[in-house]
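[Q] Does anyone have a clean structure-token version of this?
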Amino acid sequence: MPYFVYKITPPFKQLEKIDSFPNFKEAGTFAKSVRTGMTATDTYTVKVIFAENELQAEDLLNQVREPEPMTGEDY
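[A] Here you go.
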């Protein structure tokens, strides 16, 4: 399964696939290079996602994640 690199633009979470890579090291290096090229006026974020295909990647990026509970001995 490939790693996809996406540009996510607010406010409606528009997804734009930038590229895909066979391993995380290449995808992470590419994402970091895109992030370092961003200017102060850029409002998008760059994320790497592991998925079977583009449809699954976009579905995973659109899911809202629950925050971790703030209870227990660790807090």
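[Q] Thanks! Anything notable?
[A] The chain has one domain: 3-62.
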